[in-house]
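FAQ: What does a ligand-bound record look like?

Like this one, built around zinc ion:
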Amino acid sequence: MTIRAPRDRSDFKVALICALPLEAECLQQVFDNFWEDDGHKYGKAVGDSNVYTTGVIGEHNVVLAHMPGMGTVSAAAVAGALRVSFPNTKLALVVGICGGIPYGKNQEEIVLGDVIISQALVQYDFGRQYPGGFKRKTGVRDTLGRLSPEIQGNLAKLETSRYKQRIRNNIATFLQDIQRKLPGTNHPGLANDVLYNSSYVHRHYPPTICDECGKDDEICEVALKTECEQLGCESSMRLTRTKSTSSTKERPVAHFGIMGSGNTVMKSGQHRDRMAQADEIIGFEMEGAGVWDYLPSIVVKGVCDYADSHKRKGWQHYAAATAAACTKALLVEWSVEDTPTGSDQLTFEKDVREMGKKLEIPGIEDDQADVKTLVKQRLSSSAAGRWLLILDNADDEALWVNKANSEGRRSTLMDWFPSTAHGAILITTRSRRVASYLAGREVIELAAMSADQARNIFMNILENPELAGDQAAVSTLLDKLTFLPLAIVQAASYINMTQETVPPTWS
Ligand SMILES: [Zn+2]
Ligand SMILES: [Zn+2]
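The answer part, i.e. the structure of the complex:
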């Protein structure tokens, strides 16, 4: 199925947010199309410093925001700006890697490379950390209560066994695609999926001398960045996992549950287990809580470690790939509302019926009536007298230009135009393509209004001219409205309503 190119940024409903270049790299591999390849540029709002990639995944137009760094603060800044540039975002997926709890809901085993899909978030470091414990200021943030019914419904659907299985199959398929393009994302081998006893801390042990490690549960920076093998973590402290003997061992599973989100890194398995137990958390990550305040969001993250500071090679790349594959699997099943094409078409047919009613055409009220044909016949007959039909704002190319629209049907609205010497059709559009297609050589291009014309319209509609005493401010306002008549009328009406002086606060 081909997806129609969005008209502008307001047509994007799904946003993807990645903290690491590696995460974005994997996610881009599951795009079905990039709009820039087709010559479409969507830009961003003034003052937005985010960097975006726009494209298509499944049936969704998506915008991917690349974050400058990790953490909730950075995520909040990115999400806040994204909301301004893409004002109709209905769902933000925060995609990447996370730490996982070894056993999730109902003691379901979670292994490295599995993906966690958040049903709710707990901001676990919203408070202060005390020796031997952690005191949070707030309880569980019931994100489900704040997500739209549409998102809740989709999540509930996907958690049924039928869709869980479909998602698992699709993850495997999409993961193979990614791995073909990015060989570095291959499975690191089950022997590398190592879980240590939760009390066994990843730090320097004697005979290595380290002043920091071990004091007040501290782990030094060097140890945090060193892999277990170099650091010398004891293999006798490992726990056995049952998944390693199962036949579907290398096929990642998507787990639904509560995600812990914060800026504090989990330092030990015991710390992790305490937090997990208190709130039924099954994963830990660092961006979701930042995005949450700005956009309805779900975190989709691949497990690259067990949130206990122990480190092993290769899992970050693999987990970033499984998260990307899961994101696509999720979006493929995610049901969408009707495209604007469908609703525009419906609106148009409703309008034609209204026209038929005004013309008192017999049978027009009948639900089964072919309304368009009835109205066309009437307008084409000399009995209709002389008429002028105005189609305002015919900007939707897919609706008017005679090519397959997003549902794969050919647009037939053109065929409807009555062709007769006693009537005329005036169409206004901002799209040069629609204009050429509908009117051919009869296109009349309208230039922007002059500053004087714009000022005249504005002052004529303004009830109290004293509110526009500041001439320079009026000029700036009209300039900002790019002298568009409709915008000027709306601005003047707004001022009539609020009695604010120019410039009004919103400008
Ligand atoms: Zn150390
Ligand atoms: Zn270790």
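Follow-up question: can I read anything off the structure? Yes, for example: The chain has four domains: 9-193+241-333, 194-240, 340-442, 451-498.
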